[in-house]
Amino acid sequence: MSRSVSLPAPVTTRPDQPYIRLRDLEHDLAARVDGEVRFDPGSRGAYSTDGSNYRQVPLGVVVPRTLDAAVEAIAVCREHRAPVTSRGGGTSLAGQTCNAAVVIDWSKYCDHLVSVDAAARTCVVEPGIVLDVLNEKLAGTGLMFGPRPSTHSQCTLGGMIGNNSCGSTAQAYGKTADNVSRLEILTYDGVRMWVGATDEQEYARILAAGGRDARIYRELREIVDTHAEQIRRRFPDIPRRVSGYNLDQLLPGGAFHLARALVGSEGTLVTVLRAELRLVPAPKAESLVLLGYHDIAAAADAVPPIADHHPLQLEGVDDRLVSFERRKGMHPGALAKLPEGGGWLMVSFGADSQREADDRARALTDALNGTEHAPHIAFFDDEKTEKHLWEVRESGLGATARVPGMRETWEGWEDSAVPPERLGDYLRDLRALFEEFDYGDAALYGHFGQGCVHTRIPFDLLTADGIASFLAFLERASDLVIAYGGSLSGEHGDGQSRGRLLPKMFGADVMTAFEQVKAVFDPADRMNPGKIVAPYRIEENLRLGTGWTPADPSVHFGYPDDEGSFQRALMRCVGVGQCRRHSGGVMCPSYRATGEEEHSTRGRARLLFEMLGGHADSTVRDGWRSAAVRDALDLCLACKGCKHDCPMDVDMATYKAEFLSHHYAGRPRPAAHYAMGWLPLWARLAALTPRTVNALTHAPGVAGLAKRLGGIEAARPVPYFAGMRFTDWYRSRGPRGDGGRGPVLLWPDTFTDNLSPQIGHAAVEVLEAAGYRVLIPPRTLCCGLTWISTGQLGVARRVLRRTVRTLAPLLRRGIPIVGLEPSCAAVFRDDAAGLFPHDRDVARLGEQTRTLAELLAGTDGWQPPRIDRTALSQPHCHQHAVLGYDTDRDLLARAGIHLEAVGGCCGLAGDFGFTAGHLKVSMACAEQELLPAVRAADPDTLILADGFSCRTQIEQAGVGRQALHLAEILAAAQRGDNLGAYPERRIGRRPGPLQTLHDRS
Ligand SMILES: Cc1cc2nc3c(=O)[nH]c(=O)nc-3n(C[C@H](O)[C@H](O)[C@H](O)COP(=O)(O)OP(=O)(O)OC[C@H]3O[C@@H](n4cnc5c(N)ncnc54)[C@H](O)[C@@H]3O)c2cc1C
Ligand code: SF4
Ligand code: SF4
Q: Of all protein residues, whose CA lies closest to atom 1 belonging to ligand 2?
């Protein structure tokens, strides 16, 4: 081997940040890049953190529309000497996606599946494609990408390649590096080429062609050949060595696989433009065995012989994780299925048929039953139960991040890995170390089949002593894992968390090789600087840290689960990024519609966090008056999807209301806040002369002007007010039936009372037939919803207080309140307690409020009428998030209804869809699940939606169907009405003619 190659100087220290004229950089990017260029405080704040403990404000953000646009963006950065950091889902846990750099977000546009070669079992992707989306697109081929991190619904292939991601299925399929065939890469200095395995012929061809490509290959070979012996010695031979650069892929005698060597380089060497991936056959059936052991270390001891059965997944979960989930009320059904024990292994088998998968599982259980310390065993082979059981493991972070009554936990030692056969002893020693540092609360779980352990530790990252202890722990823990022949990172990568510890693991010689490799690709350290090599100190750039002095402002809501502190509430978001999922649940409709970080729950939470200030470089400097925060919250539908779906229970609807109340304190609000926030008052006035109001709000010219003045979307028809309000009808009609079951108060919310009185009529019929005596309030009252959602919290409190005072006598007698409109019932059950945390009558109001389904289901002897047909239901977001929909499902099933429930949000969400400027996002939300399902529904299918917004969205979308409320279909079935095709045409007569959106061009 020639030693004549002169190598660039290794990158050992971070060069000083060059002076960059930000305005010029922004200008040039905007002028030359086809994409979005954002240097505004909102975007910079939203991208300042990822899933880690770190925070660095980017110079700006570029969202390229195409790969070529990204190449151009990097060329511009190069001309300005600006550093660059790539970002996919931003779910990294070691700080590798936050940097004082130009952040390139691949996830919005560069997310295509470029090609699939099913015969060769390969595909080519752009870096922004999300793993679940890729696998969904591949479903028809029977193939999939093998490695599957827990973040599969939001992590991108670019990020997986950046981090060399693994996940539970790496047990069967290996790490991302093992599943990448070729990469198209771009260096900071502009070399764009495909790389992969390089045989001698190819190597010779590249060298002969000369140029920068040849230099890269020659220098890499020189470095690896020089350090080959140390690389062989210092790289642990374990399944989960993720730390460091994959120089083992370039060792002499191997494939010189440059693509695989670059996997895991965390954007510090090259930018990945496209990837050719190896695919594997997707198992057609799976079965799951749960094994209960005395404790987690005993479970780990049992791993090696189980791994010999070649399972698809072999995961471990300890009793702390299980107890945290119990305490948080997570997965109660699944937890009840765990066999006896204090530490569990979850072992799954995949196969082409259920029988084959079951046989493989049985072979394992038979083998275990014969052993001396046989575990407790449970076996499952139905998909739904297996999915719920896997959620116990996959929600590890959500379960451990903030447990009531315990210290908050953080990443920092989240994914160490050791040889699987030594895992039990490692866990015993690690637990002893936890105890020594007073971190004993930490739970242990992870990919035990491959020796990788997850944990979040109650580090104190706020005080000098706490941080000193954190650093001391890391020193000891890294010594421990190295003594076991392990890797500092077994999954999440090094980033900033591990960079400074790498010399311990790899030694000076291999570190020099890493630094030389960095110099080959990026000698000036412009690619994600400060991560892996020449790293920042572990305690630099902490999101908290001793220098963080945020405001803790006085607020309107009580935040009882956050010790009354808005600051603590805003610290809930840990950056997991589940709010960037593309399907499932409700969260976050505005992200799904826009693909924008700033319009995800996480982006909003980050900006609110920035608003509290406390960092010298906080991007939001004008507190509650911030336009950047207001703009990020503008597209929040206040659907409360996050309150239910976010593992940390981030409740953005409440934070938005809180923000708006302060933002507009003492100054004029947008017209829509007066037009729609005060709807209950306008409805009351309209009730004096509804025909005139209807004529005016639908008269050409007048209607347009009124909408313009009221900040209402021009294309949205204004709903018709009823000729007679529900409450007026009921007062004139009076109660009927014997009322033998006693009184219930039917809550006449503004929507039912004024806009859909037919639903109130139907509910009276149903309740009276069930034996109840229906009461209505003695005067017009309101829950305050519209004032809450527009952040007019002073009025909301006054309105609610008046309601509670009026209802107090009924509440104190224990009379149930039946809410027909889910969002109003949700105010009683949820927001009211936030506004009046210590009021007993408000607590009673929450406890006594029932949905119609809940009241009827709890009525002894009541049987629903037979309906016997299919129904398509859009559960209201607040049913999903606050009230629950299971009782409705059971009731409908008892009525003989085959229910198909749609997920997601309808997109109208109260005032949101009516507000000028929101139409596009509103309809995009509706088009995700609801409208396609309604269009596809058979004419005999009942379309069911309890929310006024959901019904209005369906009607105005002009899909030829209208939705009915549960009360309407129960009443019709009770009467024995023939529902026929398009049942809504026979029942549920609403005020005014059908209305669809005006010209939407
Ligand atoms: C709760 C939780 C659970 C997790 N579970 C797992 C798990 O089971 N297994 C696992 O492996 N990881 C896990 N992770 C870590 C993380 O989710 C994965 O590493 C994931 O694959 C990262 O994908 P991403 O799209 O979010 O990447 P990002 O975080 O956006 O980026 C990751 C790295 O890739 C680089 N990068 C992104 N795009 C490019 C590009 N085009 N060119 C060059 N570099 C690029 C980035 O600069 C960064 O260094 C978990 C994280 C969390 C928060
Ligand atoms: S808002 Fe919730 S789901 Fe989204 S990143 Fe934060 S913690 Fe995760
Ligand atoms: S309330 Fe809805 S739209 Fe707003 S952040 Fe939460 S999930 Fe997203």
A: 602
